[in-house]
Every structure is written in C-alpha cells, then in structure tokens.
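Record type: monomer structure entry
Structure origin: computed from sequence
Chain ID: A
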Amino acid sequence: MGGSGTSGAGLVNVAREPSGLPEARRAAAVGTFDGVHRGHLQVIDAARRADLRTSVVTFDPHPRAVLGGGVELLATLERRLELLAAAEVEDVLVLPFDEELAALSAEEFAERMLRGIGAETVAAGETFRFGRGREGDLDLLAGLGFDVRRVPLVENVSSSRVRELVHAGEPERAAKLLGRPPEVEGIVVRGDGRGRELGFPTANLDVPDELLVPPDGVYAGWALDRRAAVSIGTNPHFDGVERRVEAHLLDFDGDLYGQRLVVEIWATIREQRRFDSLEELVVAIGDDVAGTRRAVRPG
C-alpha cells in the first residue's frame, strides 16, 4: 500500500501519511481497532454523530508489538480495513507505528496526525493515551481546541478480553463482544491431500504468524458463504507435528489454491484425538460435518 488507495468491503480511502487523504473537515475516531469489536464501533458512531467526514486514525503494526509487549492479533490489517469499511468509515489513516512515531510528543502527534488531516472532532475510548511515553490524553486534546467525544468503555468488551476467550476455546462468548464470530484467515496452500482421500477435501490455510489462532480442536464455522468444518491442530491420528488450520467447506467443489480465505469460528465440536482406525476417523469427520450443519452463528 502506498501513500493512498482504496480498500475494504466498500469504498474507503486509505493513506499511510496525512497528506494522502483528501482535504476535508473530519471527525476522527482514533485507536488500534484490532478486531473492530462492539466498543470500537461505539467510538466510530461517536465520530459519525459530529456530522463531519467520518475518518479513522489507526496504527500498524500494533503499538505493543513495537514497544516490546507482543500481541496476537484478532485480525490482519487487510481484514481490519474491510471491517472499518463495513462500518461506513470514509477515510482511514494507517500510521506506520515505529520508534519515530512513538517518540513524537503528544502535542506533535495531535498537530501532525490529527490537525494534519483536518480533524476538528476526535472520538476515542475514555482511557485513550498517545504520544511519547503515553503522555497525552483526551483532556490534552480538548485543551488544544479539539471537540473531544469521550466514549465510555463497554463493560467487559476489549480486544484483550476477546483474545482471552478465543484462547480459552470459547468462540460463542468472544462473538458476543465482537458482535460477530471470531475469525482466522490465510492463503490457501497445498496440504498432504488426506482430506480429499477420505472424502472430505480441506482448504489448508497459511495463517500469518501474528494472528491469533484458537486452540486445537474441531469447530463449526463459515467461509465463502457456506458452512465449514474447521480442524485446528497437528492431525494426531497421522502423527503430525505441524500445526495446521484446515477448513472443509460443505457442499463445495472448487480450487481455492492461492486465494485468501476468511473463516468464521462459530462453535467447538470436539477436541483433536487419535482414533483406533481410519474408519473410526471417517465416522468422526462425518459427525463433525453433521454438527456443523446444526450449528448456529453466534454474535
């Protein structure tokens, strides 16, 4: 992505520097927006109510990844932009978060990255901090003349809490915080072909290293407008050692190699395990498919 462009589910302008966005009077929602959960959507709604051009200022990579904390992401940047477009954001400024940006004073950040895109209104969660050493807050922005919209935190809704629930293998509870099911995504690559040999062909995903993947198990999910039985793990029946994410798309016959696939995770069906025979494994996969057909989309 260069200085500017379009991305996402709708037409949304994306820029990597303030000058890449068209001139406009803006209401800017500011934050990392990993996962674009229900709390994030309230921040965006607060910006939209200002009746200016609704814009988002966000960061990539995640600030914690740069500042040494490390983080498993709920969504790739591409997916984040799609979700922001679906929320009817018009412009997104994706600031490359590096040591230079982290070293800006709060005042410098406000003038260059907010005033620099024409922001008059700034919406953010009430605990939002920014600038060198996290020295800036919403009071500082108000003192600089911005119309500040403080958005109370939605109780128990945060990207960190969603990560905890996904880690715990509780996609239904995570979906309530997100407002939609948690997801995993990747490029479809060639696997060992065992699924097709067993009558259940799978799309084997090359998942980005920084993305959070649910615990090993078999899940009911959704991809490409159809239900999917999703296997996460090392294929213990075949003594596998490589952790994989494989999706069997129900009632689908096609070539997905090289395509990006976003897979919703709806519900846990069972744990991964070794079976006494290949026939027993095939029966279990058939049961997984049946469970996937019965599953209800959470959120």
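Annotation 1: The two ends are 32 Å apart (CA to CA).
Annotation 2: The chain has a mean pLDDT of 93.
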